[in-house]
Amino acid sequence: MRAVLGRAWLASLLLVGLLHAAPPATPEQFFGLTNVRDARITMSADAWRSMEPEEPERGFGPPGGRPPAPPAKREYPWSMARFECAGIVLTNVAVRFKGNSSFMMSRRGLKRPFKIDFNRDAPGRTFAGFAALALANNANDPSQMHEALAYAAFARAGVAAPRTAFVRMHLVVPGIADDVYTGLYTAVEPVDGRFLESRFGNKDGVLAKPERMPGPRYFGEEWSVYEERFGVKRAGKEPEQRRLVEFARLVDRGTDAEFAERLDRFVDIAELSRFVAVNAWLANMDSLLGTGHNHYLRVATDGRVRFIPWDLNEAFGGHPGAGPASRQMDFDALHPNAPNVRFLERFLAQPKFAVIYRGELTRLVTNALSASVFLADAHRVAEAIGASVERESPMARAGFLRIGLGETNAAGHGPRLGGPGGLVGPGFAAPPLPDWISAREREVVAQLAAEKTGTRPNVGRPGGPGGPRGGPGFGPPPREP
Fold it and tell me: Residue 56 has what pLDDT?
């Protein structure tokens, strides 16, 4: 990819982006791997300041046999704004900040991640056919391609996954930002009822978004506890709720014999294997594999449990708490989870499941996860976004040249956790994405051929286990007896 692209991408400055003859009316028209849209958020200075969140208190709830409290979350207040994108103008749109590290990394600047809710205060209103939109600010990803490439990989592998598009964001906040171009964002399709219906044929059942939970955990029989702890977004009906409780009990408390005998009554083993395999190839530790969040869990009316990927900016070995990206490149794809993720630990410890998983990984490496496919997509995306990144800032340009295109003589190291001088030092700077992709393919192929044994993943925080320095990790609380 480096030889093909080189500096030739600068010629794309003549093509500022894809031109669209008419505003998109459907998600299919809006989203696309190389689609680049212009957007503008306009709000008052008071509205901007009102979105600043209060930091949560830390702690993991009461001791003893009671269910622990959910991990503390940063609450983002909603505000109102004018939103323009792709030729569509909407007023009085609900807007808030979003994210964890992606917000903290950008808190002192203007390029913050956004959640847009089009029908929060206008029931029934949509934008291009959908009710909400996540705008990721590509934090901790100097290539600005991770999310788009990773979601596309899940879709190729047959895993239901959101679609993406790119957005060139302008911000108008009188006294703070006078129609400032803040940079390139990745727009991510929301996982909601419309998503479920488009992928699975109906929107019924339970939809949850667990946070920092190393696999489903059993909290007794009271559904209200699961609503809180699993981050339930759509409650479904009583049969699906009971099904989630039964699934959690099996995974968390069932004997090994029960787990082996009954797991395939809840999940399609090949489907689960594909979800895990793509995360494993991507060394995506800010997920069910490591931190225990950034995924949706769905329980359908037929009782099937499915996992849906989310928030992939730290794919391609980009999670700072798991060590340098060059180390994550060698992570064990056959045992891809951190040891505390009990669900996946049990799953891959069962020989009959491990065989299916290995077969799915082997098959995917030769097609959906082949380096040639990744590099072809990366080439197309780089051509589409190069001009937009060029306009963003010298740091963004340098990061894109060095990490996205592999121009190792480009100055600067791009964004890092904590910003310049932040917590992640130069030793943790990522290798060029084309190099990482090619090396990861060689590594996984060698592991499947038993020519190499991968490094077992571990996840902490910068300063915690798996991170640059020793200290307490940010993982889930210990599992109560």
Answer: 66
